[in-house]
Design goal:
Blueprint lengths: L1 H4 L25 H20 L8 H25 L3 H4 L4 H25 L5 H28 L28
Length: 180
């Protein structure tokens, strides 16, 4: 009888933890590992590019370095923000759009920089492997875009808002202060 009176009144909330991982509001169980692979592949591409000792035409190498480093650092930041509760402290309400446009931009830049670096390198094995990882990172970003569109739809499409066809707004269905 005493157990009935003192039954638990609170229920644990698994979403209240700091690290949400693959069950967060913005990253599902498919996109979370994709974001992690984007971070790792761009890190490997950047590290391999940094190990290139000499180049004859360094412009494409420097551009690839900039893009792969940017992809690594900003994707890691985005992953940390979206996989934890830190995104609520930033003050943005359009995280899906930020995620979509960032992922699309980095995928395009990785494609461009990988093509430029593939055509403008000296043909060493380190440069070739760096280019391969650049294309693999770009493929991970593209896969992330495909899954984003599949799950969330097109973020450019505006949400349908009810219109009044130019007339007055409809009256409230229920008054707040009581009298009907």
């Amino acid at each position: 009888m005493a157990n009935d009176v003192y039954s638990p009144t609170t229920v644990s909330d698994p979403k209240s933890s700091f690290f949400l991982g693959s069950g967060s509001q913005f990253l599902d169980k498919v996109r979370f590992p994709l974001k992690v692979s984007e971070v790792l592949l761009s890190l490997v591409a950047f590290a391999l590019e940094e190990s290139v000792s000499s180049c004859s035409s360094c412009h494409s190498l420097y551009f690839f370095e900039f893009v792969s480093c940017t992809a690594f650092l900003f994707t890691l930041l985005l992953l940390i923000l979206l996989a934890t509760t830190l995104h609520s402290k930033v003050g943005l309400s359009c995280w899906p759009k930020v995620d979509f446009f960032y992922t699309a931009a980095i995928a395009a830049l990785l494609l461009l920089s990988s093509i430029m670096f593939a055509s403008g390198n000296d043909g060493t094995s380190v440069e070739t492997v760096a280019v391969v990882f650049g294309f693999l990172a770009m493929a991970a970003f593209c896969a992330d875009l495909v899954f984003f569109l599949k799950v969330n739809g097109n973020p450019l499409r505006r949400q349908a808002t009810p219109t009044t066809n130019g007339g007055p707004a409809p009256p409230e269905a229920e008054k707040l202060n009581g009298a009907p």
